[in-house]
Every structure is written in C-alpha cells, then in structure tokens.
Write a structure and sequence with these properties.
The structure holds two protein chains of two kinds.
Chain A: H1 11-26, H2 38-49, H3 76-83, H4 96-108, E1 117-122, E2 132-137, H5 146-151, E3 174-175, H6 190-211
Antiparallel strand pairs in A: 1-2
Helix pairs in contact in A: 2-4
Chain B: H1 6-9, H2 12-34, H3 68-78, H4 97-105, H5 113-121, H6 132-146, E1 168-180, E2 189-204, E3 207-216, E4 239-241, E5 245-251, E6 256-263, H7 277-280, E7 291-299, E8 303-312, E9 316-317, E10 324-333, E11 338-348, E12 361-372, E13 377-388, E14 394-406, E15 409-419, E16 438-450, E17 453-462, E18 468-476
Antiparallel strand pairs in B: 1-2, 1-18, 2-3, 3-4, 3-5, 5-6, 6-7, 7-8, 8-10, 10-11, 11-12, 12-13, 13-14, 14-15, 15-16, 16-17, 17-18
Helix pairs in contact in B: 3-4, 4-6, 5-6
The chains are: A mainly alpha, B alpha+beta.
C-alpha cells in the first residue's frame, strides 16, 4: 500500500485536534481585511480636505498598481504617501482620521530633494495646509502636483493627459448582471407583476386540483 | 458498507448515520444562517494516477463539482483514516457500490489513461492507490450483487443524507478564513466567511447544464468576488454570485466536450490558492476570474487540453472593461505520474479592469509540470511570461512540493516569483513591485480530517508584504 504502516493515527486524539482547530477557526465573528477599508477612508478624508468636490470611493488603483492592492503593490502615489517622512507607516487598519492626517501632512509638506515636485498654490481656508505657493509632491512627474490633480479628480499616479478624470472615472467599473449607473430607479413593471401573480395563482390551483381525492 | 474502514471504529453504522445527520443538518443550518462561497481540484492527485480531471470533476478541466466517482475517490484517497492503518485497508473493497456502478454507467473510467496503466502494473488486494479507479471498477459487479441500493457512505452528497438521481450532481463549499498578521502594528486578526457556494449539474444524455450559486460580502473596492456578482450592489452589502454557469455537450463517449457559458479559464495548473501570484497575475484564478465564452475540451489517455474563445465577463460593466481573446492549455502525460503542459492566453479590452489603463493587450504564455516523485511526494511547477502593453516583459512562476506525511495530512512548501514588467505609464524608478522581481515563500499544513472536511494553515512571507498566517476551515458537500 501507499503509506504502509506509518498511517496509524489515534482516532480520539485526531478528532479532538480537529474539533479544536474547527472551533478556533469559527470561534470569532467575521470582518474583512483591514486594508480593504482604505478606499472608503480615502473618500472621507479627501471630501474633508477638498470641501465642495464630490469624491467617489476610489478603487485600489488610486494607490496601488492593480485593483488587488496590498503593500507590495504600491504605485508612485501610494509609495510616496506610504513612505513620506512626516507620516511613516501608513498601516492597514489606520483610522479614517489617521488617513486624513496622513494626507494633510503629505499635501502640506515640501518634498525632499530628489523627489518629483511641482509648484502649487495652496488657497487659504485650511489651517492644516497653510496657504501660499511652494513645491508639492508630483508623483507622476507630469508637472501638476498631486494636490492639484486630486482637487480636479485627476489621477495623481497617471501622467496627464492619460490621468484626466481618472480618479473617479465616469465609466466606473460596475459589477453584477446588467449593472449600470441609473438616472432614476427603474419603474415598477406592472405587467411583470401581474404575470408573476397569475403564475403563482395557477400553480396553487393546479396543486389543489391534484390533491383532490379521485372518486369512483 | 464501509467494511474494514476506520469509520466503523468510531461507532459503527448507527453512529455513522447519526454523524451524517448531525453534519448534514448542521451544514444546512450554516448555509441558511450565513447565507453563504467551492470545492477545489487538487492537482497533486496525479500521484494516484489521476492526470485527467473529468473522472472526478464535472468541469472537463477540473475543479469544483465532483462526479459520483470523484466522491468515491475523495473518501478513499483524500481524507485521513482513523484507528486502522491504511495498509490494512484495501481500496479494492466495495466501499460505495452504488456510486461505482454509476461510474461504470457513465464511462468515466474510459477517460483515464492512468486506470489502464494501473491495471497493467499491479494486481490483487495489495493494489496501491494508483489502482483505485480500476480496482473499484472491477469490484463493482460483486458489489452490485451483494449490497443494498440504500447503502450510503460519508463521501456522498451531504454525507449521504440526501440521495441524488444519476442525472443530477450536487455539491457545495463553505470556506471560513482567519488571517493573522503578527508583524502588523495595527489590526492583526480578522476572520470571515470566504466562500459559500452551491453547485449543480443536470445531465440529459450527452447534454449537460451546470451552474453555481453563492453569496459574498466584501468591502468597497475589494478585488475579490466582485467579478462573479449577479446582483448589483457595489458597496459592502451581500451579493449573490455565480462563478460558473454553462451548457455542455459531450462527444465521443465524453472524451470531448463543447461548452458555452461562464467558465474557468483553461490556463496553467488549476490550483486552489487563488491568491498565488501565478494565478493572480495571469488573471486565471477560480475565485472570480471566470469569463463567458465557448470552449472545446479534449481528454484522451495521454493528451488533454482545452481551448476557449473568450467573449468577456458579462458580469462586469460597462463593456469596455471586458476582455476578449482566447485561453488554452494542452497537457501530455509523459510518464505514469508525470505530465507537462503548455498554456497560452491573449486578451484585449478597451480598458483594463485591474490597472484601469486604456487599451490593454494582455498576453501570458508558459509551461508547467506535475510529477509524483514518490508515492508521497508531488511537485508542481509553472512558469509564465507576461506581455502587457505599456509594460516591459515580465514573468511569474511557482514551485510547490507536497508531501503527504500520513493519509490525509499534507505538508507543502511553495516558492513564487513575480515581475509584472515595468509599467511605462506609471513611470518612476523601478521598484520591487514595478519592474523588479518579487519573491514569496509559503509553508502549508493541509489536513483532511473528516469526510469532506479540510483544515488548512498557511504561513507566507512575500517581499514588501507582512508575514501572514492563514487558517481555513473548508467543508464541501
């Protein structure tokens, strides 16, 4: 036989171990991976930093090379944000306010020598990001700072013109059969409802007829 | 039934039936309460002589729904046997007579070249597991004469609680995942149902209809589950999923199958680890990378393969994100338990749903090998070249060694490498994730501790990623 004599296993010990392993696995309530919360936190943070601009919940590609995300997969903007010296270790699990603080610090900072930068005019009205003109991070090196690109809903990681309106693209990726952005809720399909009702009534009547005992 | 099996030692027929009922109804309750996501192909089954997939799976290229014969082998070859040495268990014993008869009727043994080889190589009650298909088939007439039709065994659907007619295959899978990241300063532990799927297939003569239905709830922006959605919630609500649904027609006694619908892409080694780079970078995982199209599969004695014309994933909108092109693999059995394969895929879309870049042309071409070096040691390896527009050429590969320490308990070591190719659009300096290779290592313990119950623990470390431990309970119906 394939495994010969080495296969003898104590059934009680194995079953006990199996049950323990199962309990350990099922023993606590579920929640998705913490880093999956970054997109929603990003939307909240940017909405607070740029009041009046309507931000979507960005895809992982806002900071990562692919929609898979993950720390080993950062794009130029994500890499700058993650490694910028003023707010290091932007970790999975960082709170909404933590991410906003990181972004605010990032925008307010002057990039270190050697890092791509673009001159930016910061308007008054935000104490955390002082007004004035100074160089700011330009991750994609297209001559427009990340701050200005995000304010215009352009991608800070894709150079212009390719990155125009790519932070919240109009042709947003949608999932599900026939998924689309609807202008209004679909009207009630009265004919469909009536048809469905008739089918249900018909089936009920059929079952009742079938249940009647035969006479004679 | 189950004469001589270790299960008898756990309490005999009555206890087994009680156990079946308990497990069956517990699972039904679990599905109902959690509104649950799939069984998987185990490519290391080649060590048992199973180079071909449709013997055990409804999908001609393997994965998910088991055939009646696959259920027998799942119970015979996969799970741990308790209280008795497997050396004392003869796999020629008629453990599941009704199913074996059904297998004979469905001619599945004709599809496995390994079966014939097994017959030639060994004889008698000491037949090794490579012989299992042939031995079980040979035992069938005796079994049909001596066993009652009502006999059941734990490998059946819902552990034998529900009998299914010959024309109907049913299955399901629940996977619950724990993720531990000890080195992360923030949240270190999370646990969630990863998969809750039901599958079914109706066979009417040579005509087949197969589909899966599941549910998932993932965070906004998550890359997982989304592309399999049927319902259209884009937030963190529950969604109904279907990872596969197709119509098929068998030709030449099932050696060839033509299919149309939503299917796994025929490419590379069909491993269950959907996050392994080799599946993720080629977009050929079975988590939610399925596509709509038309496919032709061939499963001969030595040669098997499938080619699919990809028409796009119609569960992804709008149309510009749909990839169109082809995907194929061809595998040849070069020895008793060694096969080599080639894969190729070319797809084009107007916009890439993974990188959001415009007009991407994605190509992946590669080779793989599956080999059983000994009765207990299997090696799987795959290497693919990645050629994507606006990127330099890249590559991805993995090698996995699987050692079955005792029946049902596997130890695995995996190494992987990925270089996606420098993204010219993103630009910047070459980094480990962009233009430089990235390495990862996995250590795995996989334990099939009860019929259709698996506990798996993985520890992996990838360059520029946190050390991560995964614990997974997998119950498949």
């Amino acid at each position: 036989m394939m495994h010969g004599s080495k296969t003898r296993v104590s059934s009680r010990a194995s079953l006990a171990a199996a049950l323990l392993a199962s309990l350990a696995t099922l023993g606590s309530a579920g929640s998705a991976s913490a880093s999956a919360k970054f997109p929603a936190s990003m939307q909240k943070a940017l909405t607070n930093i740029f009041p009046g601009v309507s931000f979507c919940v960005p895809l992982c590609t806002a900071c990562h090379l692919t929609t898979v995300g993950g720390p080993g997969n950062l794009n130029v903007f994500g890499d700058n944000l993650y490694h910028q010296p003023m707010y290091p270790n932007l970790l999975p699990g960082t709170s909404d306010s933590g991410l906003e603080k990181a972004l605010t610090t990032y925008f307010a900072a002057t990039p270190a020598a050697g890092l791509a930068a673009a001159p930016t005019i910061f308007p008054p009205g935000n104490a955390a990001i002082p007004a004035g003109t100074r160089p700011s991070y330009d991750s994609d090196r297209d001559g427009v700072s990340d701050y200005d690109e995000l304010r215009n809903l352009d991608s800070p990681s894709l150079p212009l013109p390719g990155g125009v309106a790519e932070f919240c693209p109009a042709d947003t990726l949608m999932y599900g059969c026939f998924a689309r952005v609807a202008a209004a809720p679909p009207p009630v399909d009265r004919v469909g409802l009536l048809s469905a009702g008739l089918v249900v009534l018909g089936l009920t009547a059929f079952r009742r007829l079938k249940r009647k005992p035969r006479t004679g | 039934m189950l004469k001589g099996s270790g299960t008898r030692k756990l309490g005999g027929r009555d206890s087994l039936r009680a156990f079946q009922r308990f497990l069956g109804w517990s699972l039904v309750a679990l599905f109902v309460s959690l509104f649950p996501s799939r069984a998987h192909a185990y490519t290391w089954m080649i060590k048992h002589g199973y180079a071909s997939c449709p013997v055990c799976h409804a999908d001609p290229s393997g994965g998910e729904l088991l055939t009646a014969y696959g259920r027998v082998q799942s119970d015979e070859l996969l799970r741990m046997k308790y209280g008795k040495s497997s050396g004392e268990v003869s796999h020629a014993e008629p453990k599941a007579p009704r199913l074996v008869r059904r297998t004979l009727d469905s001619k599945t043994d004709a599809l496995s070249g390994a079966d014939e080889e097994g017959k030639d190589g060994q004889t008698g009650a000491d037949a090794s597991e490579e012989q299992a298909p042939a031995a079980a088939a040979e035992a069938a007439p005796t079994a049909s004469a001596s066993s009652a039709e009502s006999d059941s065994y734990p490998g059946e659907f819902l552990w034998g609680l529900v009998k299914t007619p010959d024309w109907l295959l049913l299955g399901g899978s629940y996977r619950h995942l724990m993720v531990i990241r000890p080195s992360t300063e923030a949240k270190t532990f999370s646990t969630f149902p990863m998969m809750m799927d039901l599958y079914g297939q109706v066979q009417l003569g040579n005509f087949r209809i197969e589909g899966s239905l599941g549910a998932a709830r993932v965070a906004v922006g998550s890359p997982y589950a989304r592309a399999a959605q049927l319902t259209t919630n884009q937030g963190d609500q529950w969604n109904l999923l279907s990872r596969s649904h197709w119509l098929g027609y068998d030709l030449a006694d099932g050696t060839m199958t033509i299919r149309a619908g939503h299917m796994n892409l025929p490419y590379g080694i069909r491993i269950p680890e959907h996050t392994m780079w080799v599946r993720q970078a080629t977009l050929t995982d079975r988590e939610s990378a399925q596509q709509d199209g038309v496919a032709f599969a061939y499963n001969g004695e030595k040669l098997r393969g499938e080619v699919m014309g990809i028409l796009g994933n119609y569960q992804v909108n709008p149309d510009k994100y749909r990839q169109r092109g082809y995907s194929l693999y061809a595998e040849y059995l070069v020895g008793e338990r060694t096969s080599v394969g080639l894969s190729s895929m070319v797809t084009k879309a107007k916009k890439d749903r993974i990188t959001l870049e415009a007009d991407p042309l994605r190509q992946a071409h590669g080779a793989y090998v599956r080999t059983a070096l000994t009765d207990d040691l299997v090696v799987l390896a795959e290497a693919d070249g990645l050629f994507t527009s606006d990127h330099n050429a890249g590559y991805v590969g993995f090698a996995q060694v699987d050692y079955e320490l005792i029946r049902g308990l596997h130890l695995m070591a995996t190494g992987e490498v990925l270089d996606r190719g420098y993204d010219k659009l993103v630009g910047g300096d070459k980094t480990v994730a962009n233009g430089k290779p990235q390495f990862g290592v996995w250590g795995t313990v996989d334990w099939f501790f009860l019929p259709h119950c698996e506990f798996r623990a993985d520890a992996y470390k990838r360059q520029q990623d946190d050390f991560t431990i995964l614990g997974q309970l997998h119950v498949f119906l």
